[in-house]
Amino acid sequence: MNQIIEIHKVSEMHQLGQLPKPAHPLISVIYNRDLKTASGLEGVKVINHLYTIIFKSSNICSTFSYGRNSYDHEEGTLVFTAPGQVMEFRNDITEDEQIDPDGWSLVFHPDLFRKSSLSDKMNSYSFFHYDSNEALHVSDRERTSIEDLLAKIVQEYSQMLDRHSLHLIVSNVELFLDYCLRFYDRQFFSRTHLNGDTISKFERFLNNYYESDQASENGVPSVDLCARQLNVSPNYLSDLLKKETGKTSLEHIHLFLIERAKNSLLNSSESISTIAYSLGFDYPQRFSNLFKSKTGMSPKEYRFLN
Prior knowledge:
single chain, Jelly Rolls, Arc Repressor Mutant, subunit A, five-stranded antiparallel sheet
């Protein structure tokens, strides 16, 4: 049975890497070149309760297990993990693969920003909930931008702390994340051909789901179900669709339902309840409420007026 380690504090992350005590209790930048060794951690699962951003340079095999898609930029990759996610050290590493000398990790505790405006913004950084194979691939110029901010964070928490320190640290973390958000937007744009393929698969899945009558048995398809079928995370799918079409995954599902409902209302004499059940709704009233919220009229009114 694999060993499981839980990390609740920045100091515990330092202990895992056999590093000195952190300069700040709530945030640290850990450079791979300072790590003693990854040996002894092969096969270990780490439940990490910190926010963690891992940078991996190009052409270096990592000791962490996570997937990779084709690169838009080959200079480096950023992987983001939110508290509660699991990392696992591979047990098939070789001597040459153990340490990426140019790699680093930014780790910070949620308490760092609880009393700041960043607390309200954290949910907007949905890339913390992407799958690892949906990592951010950064160019050399982008890497320089974020590593300049990283140096400012280190400088700020390494000197004598004063009443401005926490605000400046959090401000630089926020700016760091805003840059990452911009770079993800670039990545969505540069992957337009791949995104179009995902959108087509999404639409085909919805059509097949209803044509095979799965809705009657399993209900309205959820965003999670659609994402699993497309081998992407729910957050990544919604963000991709939002960038490409202006609508989230849930909005696309609802629009698909409305269009299908309109066809049924106008091309059949089935009751409203029967149509609702065929679309996967447990209760016809939920279907009627959704239909009215999207069209401005009830299903009965729509059928009568058309």
